[in-house]
Amino acid sequence: RVTTDTTERLLVYDRRAALVPLDPRDTSRGALLAHRSGLVSNIIALFEKIWDQAEELPPADGGNGTSRGDLSAMERRVLVAMCTVGKDE
């Protein structure tokens, strides 16, 4: 899925822990790690809202055999790799 809303920078692990930058404009300032709290639940809800508002990535050919040209071949390969990687277990 793709979205133009990229204002939120957060990581959620197993729906139990979340990592949020202290300053979203300057991530070098550190991050807050939250465990199993209302904060984690709210971060998950925010992610799900962004996910629901995102759109499916259209086929490379626009679904009708004509090239869309919106993404380069490299960009498409990166997106495919991001969507198919395994878990860090």
Layout of SSEs?
Elements: E1 11-13, E2 17-21, E3 31-35, H1 38-53, H2 73-84
Antiparallel strand pairs: 1-2, 2-3
Can you describe this structure?
- The structure is a single chain.
- The protein has helices spanning 38-53, 73-84, and strands at 11-13, 17-21, 31-35.
- By secondary structure, the chain is of the alpha+beta class.
- It is elongated and about 45 Å long.
- The protein folds into two domains: 1-56, no CATH class; 59-89, no CATH class.
- It starts with 10 loop residues before the first strand and ends in a 5-residue tail after the last helix.
- A three-stranded antiparallel beta sheet has the order 1-2-3, covered by helices on one side.
- It has two helices and three strands; from the N terminus they run βββαα.
Annotation keywords:
single chain, alpha+beta, three-stranded antiparallel beta sheet, 31% helix, 89 residues, 3 strands, 2 helices, 2 domains
Quick recap of the structure?
The chain has 89 residues and is of the alpha+beta class.
Indicate the proportion of strand residues: 5-15%
Instruction: Give the overall shape, derived from the CA principal axes.
Output: elongated
Secondary-structure class: alpha+beta
How many helices? The count is 2
**Poorly predicted runs:** none
